[in-house]
Amino acid sequence: MATWQGAMDHRGFHQGSFNSFQSSSSDEDLMDIPGTAMDFSMRDDVPPLDGEIEENRSYNGGGIGSSNRMMDFLEEPIPGVGTYDDFNTIDWVREKSRDRDRHREITNKSKESTWALIHSVSDAFSGWLLMLLIGLLSGSLAGLIDISAHWMTDLKEGICTSGIWFNHEHCCWNSKHVTFENRDKCPEWNSWSQLIISTNEGAFAYIVNYFMYVLWALLFAFLAVSLVKVFAPYACGSGIPEIKTILSGFIIRGYLGKWTLMIKTITLVLAVSSGLSLGKEGPLVHVACCCGNILCHCFNKYRKNEAKRREVLSAAAAAGVSVAFGAPIGGVLFSLEEVSYYFPLKTLWRSFFAALVAAFTLRSINPFGNSRLVLFYVEFHTPWHLFELVPFILLGIFGGLWGALFIRTNIAWCRKRKTTQLGKYPVVEVLVVTAITAILAFPNEYTRVSTSELISELFNDCGLLDSSKLCDYENRFNTSKAGELPDRPAGVGVYSAMWQLALTLILKIVITIFTFGMKIPSGLFIPSMAVGAIAGRLLGVGMEQLAYYHHDWAIFNSWCSQGADCITPGLYAMVGAAACLGGVTRMTVSLVVIMFELTGGLEYIVPLMAAAMTSKWVADALGREGIYDAHIRLNGYPFLEAKEEFAHKTLAMDVMKPRRNDPLLTVLTQDSMTVEDVETIISETTYSGFPVVVSRESQRLVGFVLRRDLIISIENARKKQDGVVSTSIIYFTEHSPPVPPYTPPTLKLRNILDLSPFTVTDLTPMEIVVDIFRKLGLRQCLVTHNGRLLGIITKKDVLKHIAQMANQDPDSILFN
């Protein structure tokens, strides 16, 4: 299928590969393409002869000095050569090859001296040290965000007079004048009406509290959107679509930088505290990846290699989910299932370690004061019954329908934001949505509290001492088993809570559509879980009352006797939360693991699995994309989805450039072009690289050179090599011919030439080409016919072709 004839026709194929920064050695970690015949001639690492090396020494001193110094060009390169421009895709094969060469050199040197051996050991240990630092920093920042967000959320309702730094809960914990029944009321905690007008009773006090709640919400939202707009535009959104794109090999400079980390951490606290329908879990993955990227700069192995850095970012994403949900194993599975493009076994172990350290750090900080990593831990362990799978599957159907509805409406709104004047006023949009949310939220106690606290209350099972309206049951029993309450008839408080929860459900469904995607940090996990938890709790209470009043029905009488604890509404809330989150994100395995780690409900794995799978099936039937993939497509990111199958019968010649009536392919010749000729081609085109051929007549392929490397090498030669002028001939050959006297010196650029570009024939089926691009992470692939160059296929061409085959706009595949 794949042919390497163009490179192998030349005698210097083996030796030249060592002079290039891209070795042609096999990339076994990345390559798994059944049915393709590929020649990896360099597998035995045949060293070049010393004489040939001396002849190959280039103008910039980057040549190889001896057979044992194959890395000189990589260790002392021209600054910038081998790096990438912003909004470009990395060359995975080249990066992996460079890392293997670096590792091979360190291993060889380790046998020569003790110092080299120590360096080899420290190099091997550096990855684990980096994971330790990422875990510590991610856990610390997550603890800081949790504590700050909890305090600022309570600040909208009042302040603690005994210590301004205490939130409502901690303020009353320290009070000596609090009763168990009224444990959320203590003299040390004063509402704003008490501070301003010295009373908490009456209509005027309610209006004062209402006004202060909305005012604080608007202030927090305004600060968040202003900081993002002025200092770090990349700090908005959840960050997961962009991280998926970056992990697939795309470069977005600054997206994981220190300013983004700083602003995202601050504005995430402000956004969550404003009461908007968003969560901090998705943005915490972005925060953790920022930590990983910044810490990579402390280690040469990761700073200089983009592929190795992406392995670190995969592990950092796992640490982010670990601290977001207190779910270290779920974090590793989330990184594997949802965000990572390349996930070798070594990354799996390191992700596990990073997630472990991050969770341990957060547990040490104990942000919730309950010795748990999360707010949602459940205490009930009531067994579920087989018949209950029916309502669990109904919740899965609801979750799938909600997920498909949310994705379609949210993408439509975000597209409207991009294509109309609305996108030019992000501050106004945020303030309007915040004002509407706060005004509608305050009258309802279930929308007034933070979404995390709401989910915690919905997951909770009612005990005798619970004072919540959700637990206002009529106690008509004499005895019960220890620690177990029988099903009871609902009281007035439960019916009131049901109406309020129904209104909360409608508000959350509608307002989340407009909130996700605004220019502030906004996660989707918590709002999606809240929608599902409310629906689940409503269904759970309905089932509980049905079982109580009709326990003699055939569906109940075999397992639910009068006075027994048959139905657990909190379990239905858990299952509903999993179903809705699965419907939006299309996660399955990682979702179930996150949910049982989140709640501690290990015995509820089967209900969670049934709901998650049903939700995915229903949502996939209505639309194949999850919310993150939909936002990737909306933004035009060059992301090649590995999960989708390409089933069309097209050939490489149908996709390659140039087409039949297009201008000829822009190429460079190996030994007949001047510096001026090359600079003219560079200035007149915008291509990322150029094929190099023997001559324009033969069109026999020699290799491929990147535009960035070409520009940097010519500029460097003009500065450092005497006599290089516009008429100097550029040679990509192994041997340059004798130069006649009184002619400008030649410029030898064989070192920047990739002598083993990936090639396919013109009759290669596109399904194989697409598979090759996915498995190898290629930037471009050259198309040949009988060894002669015909054209080129880039990653963007592949994406446009896939979009065209799916009856979508191919021009949407442009980074916006």
UniProtKB/TrEMBL annotation:
<dbReference type="InterPro" id="IPR000644">
    <property type="entry name" value="CBS_dom"/>
</dbReference>
<feature type="transmembrane region" description="Helical">
    <location>
        <begin position="571"/>
        <end position="596"/>
    </location>
</feature>
<keyword id="KW-0967">Endosome</keyword>
<feature type="transmembrane region" description="Helical">
    <location>
        <begin position="312"/>
        <end position="336"/>
    </location>
</feature>
<keyword id="KW-0812">Transmembrane</keyword>
<keyword id="KW-0406">Ion transport</keyword>
<keyword id="KW-0129">CBS domain</keyword>
<dbReference type="InterPro" id="IPR046342">
    <property type="entry name" value="CBS_dom_sf"/>
</dbReference>
<keyword id="KW-0472">Membrane</keyword>
<feature type="domain" description="CBS">
    <location>
        <begin position="656"/>
        <end position="720"/>
    </location>
</feature>
<feature type="domain" description="CBS">
    <location>
        <begin position="752"/>
        <end position="812"/>
    </location>
</feature>
<dbReference type="GO" id="GO:0005769">
    <property type="term" value="C:early endosome"/>
</dbReference>
<dbReference type="GO" id="GO:0005886">
    <property type="term" value="C:plasma membrane"/>
</dbReference>
<feature type="transmembrane region" description="Helical">
    <location>
        <begin position="524"/>
        <end position="543"/>
    </location>
</feature>
<keyword id="KW-0333">Golgi apparatus</keyword>
<keyword id="KW-1133">Transmembrane helix</keyword>
<keyword id="KW-0832">Ubl conjugation</keyword>
<protein>
    <recommendedName>
        <fullName>Chloride channel protein</fullName>
    </recommendedName>
</protein>
<keyword id="KW-0868">Chloride</keyword>
<dbReference type="GO" id="GO:0010008">
    <property type="term" value="C:endosome membrane"/>
</dbReference>
<dbReference type="GO" id="GO:0015297">
    <property type="term" value="F:antiporter activity"/>
</dbReference>
<comment type="subunit">
    <text>Interacts with NEDD4 and NEDD4L.</text>
</comment>
<dbReference type="InterPro" id="IPR001807">
    <property type="entry name" value="ClC"/>
</dbReference>
<keyword id="KW-0547">Nucleotide-binding</keyword>
<feature type="transmembrane region" description="Helical">
    <location>
        <begin position="386"/>
        <end position="407"/>
    </location>
</feature>
<keyword id="KW-0050">Antiport</keyword>
<dbReference type="InterPro" id="IPR014743">
    <property type="entry name" value="Cl-channel_core"/>
</dbReference>
<keyword id="KW-0677">Repeat</keyword>
<feature type="transmembrane region" description="Helical">
    <location>
        <begin position="210"/>
        <end position="235"/>
    </location>
</feature>
<feature type="transmembrane region" description="Helical">
    <location>
        <begin position="427"/>
        <end position="444"/>
    </location>
</feature>
<keyword id="KW-0813">Transport</keyword>
<feature type="transmembrane region" description="Helical">
    <location>
        <begin position="125"/>
        <end position="145"/>
    </location>
</feature>
<dbReference type="GO" id="GO:0005247">
    <property type="term" value="F:voltage-gated chloride channel activity"/>
</dbReference>
<keyword id="KW-1003">Cell membrane</keyword>
<feature type="transmembrane region" description="Helical">
    <location>
        <begin position="497"/>
        <end position="517"/>
    </location>
</feature>
<comment type="similarity">
    <text>Belongs to the chloride channel (TC 2.A.49) family. ClC-5/CLCN5 subfamily.</text>
</comment>
<comment type="function">
    <text>Proton-coupled chloride transporter. Functions as antiport system and exchanges chloride ions against protons. Important for normal acidification of the endosome lumen. May play an important role in renal tubular function. The CLC channel family contains both chloride channels and proton-coupled anion transporters that exchange chloride or another anion for protons. The absence of conserved gating glutamate residues is typical for family members that function as channels.</text>
</comment>
<dbReference type="Pfam" id="PF00654">
    <property type="entry name" value="Voltage_CLC"/>
</dbReference>
<dbReference type="Pfam" id="PF00571">
    <property type="entry name" value="CBS"/>
</dbReference>
<dbReference type="GO" id="GO:0000139">
    <property type="term" value="C:Golgi membrane"/>
</dbReference>
<dbReference type="GO" id="GO:0005524">
    <property type="term" value="F:ATP binding"/>
</dbReference>
<dbReference type="InterPro" id="IPR002247">
    <property type="entry name" value="Cl_channel-5"/>
</dbReference>
